[in-house]
Amino acid sequence: MKIRIKNFDILQIADSGQCFRMNQIDAPSGKIRYEMIAYGKYLELEQVDKDQVELFCSEEEYHEIWEEYFDLSYDYESIVNTLIEGEDPFLKEAAAYGRGIRILKQEPFEAMISFIISQNKNIPAIRSGIEAICARYGERIVISEKSGKDYYAFPTPDALAKADKEELRRLKMGYRDEYIISAAKAVQKGEINLEYLKQIGFDEAVKALKGVHGIGDKVANCISLYGLHHIEGFPVDVWIKRVIDEIYHNKFEKEQYFGYAGIVQQYMFYYMRYLKGRG
DNA sequence: CTCCAGGTTTATG
DNA sequence: CATAAACATGGA
To answer: Which residue spans of chain A are classified as CATH 3.30.310.260?
Structure first.
């Protein structure tokens, strides 16, 4: 189904570093098309034009999953306009450049494990690592008999809680092996209730997440922002550190963007990577 | 080969 | 409290 929507650029979303399982594929139209797996479902989507995308799924599935996943009811246009019309020269440019980004509502457990894996890895390495985990521990998804390619859902907490260190090392998880297992076990045992963490406040959610071995402040902010949709999440990684240091000379206050700090962070991240030749 | 990557933990001053 | 070293490994 085709959807008319502003501020939705598939390429920007796929390349924004918040999700790691969107892959570009060829389309008969020659336009930008991606395939992805989320919530156990396979989806292809194509950029028809600047303000229109086509999702290749049923209307039920669209309303059940993807409308919310892509945060389509949120008005990004007004955020972008606020920043573009604002006083901050860096954010004017960053918002204009990344205006097609949306903050996805990913599966909380997937965000949790993905960002544990992400630490001290570059984005291509994160992608391949997550694919390896999915192929080993995730349920196979059948798309069609002929497609020849295998697709896997993200593993359940149960499946990952049973993983052993050696196997995770073989999948190139490195020292993160025990972090992954302890996180999966915490969820499996109910010590961490991710659905509950969605309900409570951002600060509390971060605090609870940091109780897990291997989750520090940055990863907890990522999980909160991308998995729990706490829009106050403001992950400070090497790129945001660079922005705060080089652009703001260590005088940046995220509090001035209360209510949408996570979106501001995303524009900063995406734009800085572009400026430094990684976008 | 060297340096860096959407960091966290542990040790040390 | 702040800083430094260790950690495992692939990508550029």
So the answer is: 2-97
Q: Which nucleotide is nearest to A242 (CA to C1')?
A: B6
Which nucleotide, over all strands, has the C1' atom closest to the CA of A176?
Answer: C8
Count CA atoms closer than 13 A to A140's CA, side-chain side. Answer: 7
pTM here is 0.98
User: What are the CA-CA distances from residue A84 to residues A63, A90, A197 (Å)?
Assistant: 31, 10, 33
Classify domain A108-227 at the CATH topology level. Endonuclease III; domain 1 (1.10.340)
Query: Do A242 and A250 form a contact (C-beta atoms < 8 A)?
Result: no
Per the structure, the residues numbered 125 to 184 in protein chain A that have their CB within 7 angstroms of any atom of strand C are 125, 128, 169, 172, 174-175
| C1'-nearest nucleotide to the CA of A121 | B5
- A170: phi then psi, degrees, rounded to nearest 5: -65, -30
Q: A73-105: per-residue pLDDT in tens?
A: 999 999 999 999 999 999 999 999 999 999 999
- Which nucleotides of chain B are near protein (any atom < 7 Å from a CB)? 4-10
The residues of A between 86 and 125 with beta carbon within 7 Å of nucleic strand B are: 115, 118-125
DSSP states along A261-274: HHHHHHHHHHHHHH
